[in-house]
């Protein structure tokens, strides 16, 4: 039994979100929540909220036992890039690229 939760188009770099996702992958749900609660990167707050959503999906839709859930995989992909212009001296302008990413969390139950 697998439960999924998606977050698309969040204003994070895929590289920075991937660093947090690598730590959480493969851990139990409780250990992952503890790590994300005390980690101070922006990506950890976003992934924690998504993990809470995945836990709620597993509990309500699949009637899963929360104590047996593990984070099977966390997939982080690049999203659309927002292109902006920043005015500079002498009438020029620089291009600012604001990255987005898509995050997917898959939870599964451990074998007893």
CATH topology: Ribosomal Protein L22, Chain A
- Which value, in Å, is the CA radius of gyration? 17 Å
* CATH superfamily (homologous) name: Ribosomal protein L22/L17
Give the tally of structural domains. Answer: 1
Biggest sheet overview: 3 strands, antiparallel
Low-confidence stretches are: none
Q: End-to-end distance, in Å?
A: 13 Å
Class per helix and strand makeup: alpha+beta
CATH-scheme architecture: Alpha-Beta Complex
Q: What general outline do the C-alpha atoms trace?
A: elongated
Strand-and-helix sequence, N→C?
A: EHHHEEEE
Tell me the strand order in the biggest sheet: 1-5-2
- What is the number of E strands? 5
Whole-number mean pLDDT: 95
CATH class: Alpha Beta
Strand content is 35-45%
Which percent range fits the helix content? Answer: 25-40%
* H/I helix tally: 3
Describe the structure.
With 112 residues, the protein is of the alpha+beta class. It has a single domain, classed as Ribosomal protein L22/L17 (Ribosomal Protein L22, Chain A), CATH 3.90.470.10. It is 37% helix and 36% strand. The chain is built from three helices and five strands, in the order βαααββββ. It has a three-stranded antiparallel beta sheet. Strands 3-4 form a two-stranded antiparallel ribbon. Helix 1 (14-24) packs across helix 3 and helix 2 runs antiparallel to helix 3. It is elongated, with a radius of gyration of 17 Å. The model has no long low-confidence stretch (mean pLDDT 95).
